[in-house]
Amino acid sequence: MSLDSRLWGKAAGLGKNAAGAHRTHPLICHLLDTAAVAEVVWDELLTSRQRSMVAGALQVPDGEARALAAFWAGLHDIGKISVPFQLHRNGPKYADGQLLAQEMGGEDGYGFAAGAAQDRQSHEAAAHWWLAGVFEEIGYPSSRRRPQSQLSHAVAQMLGGHGGRYHPVVYAKDYRCPAARHPGLGTGRWEEQRRVHFDEVRRVTGAASVPQGRMTPGAAVVLTGLVTLSDWLASIDEEIRARLREEGWTGTREDLDGYWQVARAAALRLVEQSDLVGTGFVRPEPVQCAGETSLVASVGAQLPDLVSAHGPGLVVVTAPASEERTQAALRAAAVLGHAVDARGLFYALPTGSAADSHMAQLHAFAEQALTGPWRSLLLHSSSRLKPAEAAQQWVHAHAAGDVSAEPGEEWVLAANSWLNSHHRALLAALGTGTVDELLQAVMPVKFNVMRLFAFSGKVVVVDEAHARGAWGQKLMLRFLEWAAALQIPVVLAAMSADKSVDAMLAAYRRGAGGGKETTVQPRRLPAWSFVDAQSGRGHLPRQPAGTVDAATLSVEVVDGGPYDGIQAALAPLAGAGKGRAVVYRSTPAEAIRTFHQLSHDLPGIDVTLVHEQMRNKDRWQRLAACRSTFSPDGVVSGPCVLVTTPMLQHVRGLHFDLVVSGPAPLASLLARAAQSAGDQPRLVVLRADNRSELDDVALVRRTDIVLGAGRTISMPEEVPLLLDEVYADELVDRLEEAAARELQQLDNRRTVRERRATGTAGWLQVPGPRELDGDLGLLSRDHPGMEPGLLPSVLGEEMVHVVCLYPGSLLEDGVLGEKLARDSKRRPKPGQLVPYLIPVPQRLVDGVAGDANSVWCDMAALKSVLRLDMTRVDGTWVRTGERHQFRVSEHGLIVDQLP
Fold first, then answer.
1. Minimum mean pLDDT range among 217-221, 299-303, 624-628
2. Alpha carbons 459 and 464: distance in angstroms, whole number
3. Which of 17, 79, 512, 844 could form a disulfide with 484 if both were Cys (CB 3.0 to 4.6 A apart)?
4. HEC profile of 649-671
5. How far apart are CA 569 and CA 556, in angstroms?
6. Would you say the C-alpha torsion 731, 732, 737, 741 has a positive or negative sign?
7. Where are the alpha helices (DSSP H) in 512-615?
8. Between the CA atoms of 662, 667, 668 and 673, what dihedral angle is there, to the nearest 10 degrees?
9. CB neighbours (10 Å) of residue 487?
10. How far apart are CA 186 and CA 109, in angstroms?
């Protein structure tokens, strides 16, 4: 039986021939394209760790594992040899509108049963169903009772997941006659052509061996990533157009051998142009500080020996938030990255604003720690439309500082780069983003396994590891299990050691197969520990880190009107004519109001404003200016005050003489107090101010009781003791009966919320690597009752991105500039909007329909962007709806709910 080259694999974007018919790329060519790319991905992109994970699972030498990986990648779309795909109404057509493949339906052997064309089985699922039986036929290990436990089904299920979701287990009664259940697969020549394509891909790739191993979770992640990435690269339209075969090409054996050489030559170019290849870690310079016991020196001096002896693993650094802690975490990342030949780093923070502020430091780190070309992306909800364009806008905002925006900088990524998309962005060598990106890897979202694959080649650093609440804590434990199973080096940085940190250590040990003995993080501060991914054993440094930046934090709690308290706290700065302070308000609206009041009432003080409800570009520029003005070396001519919201508490590198804050949980107050510079840092807490809606009422109340009228805290020694005091059950016993009863009620509500959140997260998360039992479909399982809004809600407060449009244009610096039509004919470019997006909590805009036209609504990238057409009213840009009024200025967006 000869191969039928009319069976098409790609058509969209390939144009038409002189006769007006759509050009097509034969399916066999696309399969060989993907196989050829897989070879290069194996050689150039996978780390030695990833390759050995696959070869060890399959129980074959590295060379055979490479050939098998290419062979399997070449089979990923074999399910396209099916009636519904080849005869789909949107398939390639002649000039008269008839389907190119329609003629096959009338030929001998290509007939099909009634209803076959309406079979709703996807081509990915078809590949899974059909390949399970064929792999069994050629000798791959199989099982009738538990097919998921053996390689024949596991490889088929893995290939069926290349579209982002695995499909349920297929049992022998179905995969041995798949067309009986799914007539769309077709019989006769449909079946013959699947077998011919299978045999030719196997022959050309040289994958004659029959592996007898098993599909481990680690091998499944690596192979899924390799196959999916190879398919993405092989599917670039402009590259396919360069490889289209001439008319009359029939796909003979000689044709295929010749095309294989074309595909291999193109594959190397495709991978090299992907901005993914060539990044690594240099060997860290030895620590030249004999006898020094600082946190950075302790990690730098002792971690290399631990990694050399035990392999990669998890490093946990506990210390109050500071530049020193960040430097220690990055030092650990450099040691781990070099040890495992990692391809890059992902730095995760609690909020997008914190990620924005860390990019400069990460680029400085990358210039010293990374070798070869490296690409950087900004990865969080505000940058998700176009990560590379967000990074470029960030560069422009910081151009006046230490980061250059000149063309030619290696890390500046072109906006039209292949990486500049939602699912591919995590593959970039350097990613700065939010912890949500990690947590989605262990939630049943589309392409969750591609996230695991992207992280498996990197070092992952999680800053403020336990700052996500009950949802995030539960999901983080599951991520750490997978990280250990994949031998991903991880660095966790936390304010203090507690039960949640111990749980993270235990989760990594569990994923690594460690014993049942417990490992706890040292309670003294600062401290660090190491768990190796080979055995799951915990290791402590020979010489603990010493405290070199000890200080006494003075906390003053004041009653009375919040604004009066702010004025009183700032009066000494105005009187002295010098000093730097930060004032935390609970909402952007309160921050804007305080900014205006202070600017009017304290004309001698330079007042600056930054908050989350500013346009991206404005927020980035303000943060860049703050890093200059409020840095330790910042030079200012007089007193200056920064008015902000809780978004700033995770930002590093800012130093103030005074921190003023409303009530908040102790951990948040200590994070803000860490920005107070000098040997005697000061924190003023405004007891009567509003708390943030995101703060737990019980923890705020407990913090207020512990602080009383104020106290001094020895930093960092007393931090763990103070946190324990806030959470202690005995705190209730210190109160009078009414106050105790009130606090007990608040505690009970908090306990209920946390248990509900933990329970739902536990139900929602994917199984751990040791719970899969061979069934990859469990990683994509849709739970009964899962609602569309559930996944975003698990990741914290759901955000909406607002873009304000003015008559015919976007408003930039008070001038009507860059055009963006408001009519329904022009398609906006999503990347054009990135600088102007304003993140707003969903709860503030519930019920707001926005002003998007039909074209806007039809663009998938803009479905989460709320478009507001603004009108000038009394000198202010306003948009008034049924229940909300939006007011926007250079100070940001205010959302008012109408009575």
1. 624-628
2. 16
3. 512
4. HHCCCCCECEEEECCCCHHHHHH
5. 10
6. positive
7. 562-576, 588-601
8. 80
9. 22
10. 10
